[in-house]
Every structure is written in structure tokens, then in C-alpha cells.
Amino acid sequence: MNRRYQRATLRTEIWIGQDGIFTRTPDFLRDLSETGAFIQTQQRFTKGTILSLRFQLPFSAHLISATVIVRHRRETSGVGVQFLDLAPEHAEELRGFVGEQVARVA
What we know:
Order of helices and strands: EEEEEEEEH
Strand content: over 45%
């Protein structure tokens, strides 16, 4: 499958927030790109749901915070989300991480 943006798998603790309340989850990001991610989760979010997401990249001292929208849902495995609001420095950090991971696998 040809994809517009490179993707990387990241297993890290995720905090998911809705209505200002964040919950630490056992979920992880899969197919992380500079524009979005697939969240491996048992939680049920419907298409169009707006969430706040916090996660940490390896070797980073801070959390990346983003507002995301659920773009699609797989019944048994999770949701695909698109980043709506991501600070420029976080976007750059994310782009660098994904690029490094893709280069490492190639």
C-alpha cells in the first residue's frame, strides 16, 4: 500500500483526554506519522470524536500533546486519528522520529 506519509510503530504510555479529563491507558500508537496515528485500544470511540492525546517519544524529556479527531474505527483493534492541533516543535520532533524509524527499518 502506498501511503502519503511515512509511518513508524511506537509502544509508549498514552494519556487520552476527553472533556479535560486525562486517563493513562495501556494502549499504544501504531502507524505513527506526522499527520496522525492508529491507536491500538479496546476503548470505543466513534468516528468524529475529538480527543486530547499525550505521549512521549523515546529519548525525549517531555510529553507531546495533541488534539486529534477519530477518522476511522476498527471494531476489535482501535481507531485511526488525525492530528488537528500539534505545536510546531512537536510536529518537527515527530517528523524526525518517524524518519529515523523508517530509515532504521529500510
